[in-house]
Design a protein that fits this description.
Shape: elongated
Structural class: alpha+beta
Radius of gyration: 20 Å
CATH class of the largest domain: Mainly Alpha
Oligomer: single chain
CATH superfamily of the largest domain: Alpha-helical ferredoxin
CATH architecture of the largest domain: Orthogonal Bundle
Strand order of the largest sheet: 2-1-5-3-4
Distance between the termini: 69 Å
CATH topology of the largest domain: Fumarate Reductase Iron-sulfur Protein, Chain B, domain 2
Bound molecules: iron/sulfur cluster, FE2/S2 (inorganic) cluster
Strand content: 5-15%
Number of domains: 2
C-alpha cells in the first residue's frame, strides 16, 4: 500500500449525538500536491458518506470550505496535505453554531454583511455609458475586492467571538472599506455614519489574527485602520 495520511475529523449531528467527537480516518496520498479537500472528498466518497462539509469550486474562489485545520483557519481546497502535521485535526470554523460536522451556521455573518449595504450607491444621474475610473482609482480596490467571504478571518477574531452580535468583524469591515475606497460610490458619508459606533467598528483591538487567517493574503486590520482614519479625517 502507498503512503497513507491520517486525519482526525470533528463529527457532530445535533439531532442524533449527545456531544461532538473526533473520528480518525486514513486516506491514501492520491497525488502529488494533494489538498485537504481531496482527502475529505475521499472520506466522503469511499469511507463514510455521512461526513458533511461545504465545498464548491475547489479552487479557492467560492469561499465555502473554510474550516479549522490543525488549529488555523483556512480553505481545505488550497491547503496541501503535505505540509500538515499528522494526524491532521479538522474542525469547523470556531465560534459558530455547528449545523453538522464541518458545516456551520453562516446566517449571522451574512446578515452583518447585508448591514453594510454592499452595493454601489450613487446620487448623481446615471451616465449614458458607464461610471469611469482612472487606473489609479481602480488600483484602490486592490486588496479589497479579492475577499471571497469565507469567514476564516472573522471566526479567528477574539473580539468577534465575544461581541459578535454587534462587532461587525474583519471580513465585513474589509468589505465596508471596499465601498469606501471605490471612487464611483457616493454614499461615503452615510457609510461612515453607520460604522462610527463603539461596537460595530471600534471593538477591533488590533489582535491581527484576522490577517494571519486570510487565505487570500488580505489585510483586514489595515482596512479597519483605514476606516478609522477616514472617520477621524472628517472630524478635523
Ligand atoms: S485585528 Fe481586529 S478584526 Fe482582526 S482579529 Fe484582531 S480584533 Fe479581530
Ligand atoms: S478577508 Fe480573507 S479570510 Fe476574511 S472573509 Fe475575506 S477572504 Fe476570507
Ligand atoms: S471549495 Fe471553493 S474556496 Fe474551497
Amino acid at each position: 500500500m502507498g503512503e497513507m495520511i491520517r486525519l482526525t475529523v470533528f463529527r457532530y449531528d445535533p439531532e442524533r449525538d449527545a456531544k461532538p467527537s473526533m473520528q480518525t480516518f486514513e486516506v491514501p496520498l492520491l497525488k502529488p500536491g494533494m489538498k485537504l479537500l481531496d482527502a475529505l472528498n475521499h472520506i466522503k466518497w469511499e469511507l463514510d458518506g455521512t461526513l458533511t462539509f461545504r465545498r464548491s469550486c475547489g479552487e479557492g474562489v467560492c469561499g465555502s470550505d473554510g474550516m479549522n485545520i490543525n488549529g488555523v483557519n483556512g480553505l481545505a481546497c488550497i491547503t496541501p496535505v503535505a505540509g500538515l502535521k499528522q494526524p491532521i485535526h479538522v474542525r469547523p470554523l470556531p465560534g459558530m453554531r455547528v449545523i453538522r460536522d464541518l458545516v456551520v451556521d453562516m446566517d449571522h455573518f451574512f446578515d452583518q454583511y447585508r448591514q453594510i449595504e454592499p452595493w454601489l450607491q450613487t446620487s448623481t444621474p446615471t451616465p449614458e455609458h458607464e461610471r469611469l475610473q482612472t487606473p489609479e482609482e481602480r488600483a484602490e480596490l486592490d486588496g479589497q475586492y479579492e475577499c471571497i467571504l469565507c469567514g476564516c478571518c472573522t471566526t479567528s477574531c477574539p473580539s468577534w467571538w465575544w461581541n459578535g452580535e454587534r462587532f461587525l468583524g474583519p471580513a465585513v469591515l474589509l468589505q465596508a472599506n471596499r465601498w469606501l475606497v471605490d471612487s464611483r460610490d457616493e454614499a461615503t458619508g452615510k457609510r461612515l455614519d453607520q460604522l462610527e459606533d463603539a461596537f460595530r467598528l471600534y471593538r477591533c483591538h488590533q489582535i491581527m489574527n484576522c490577517m494571519d487567517a486570510c487565505p487570500k493574503e488580505l489585510n483586514p486590520t489595515a482596512a479597519i485602520d483605514s476606516i478609522k482614519r477616514k472617520i477621524l479625517a472628517r472630524k478635523s
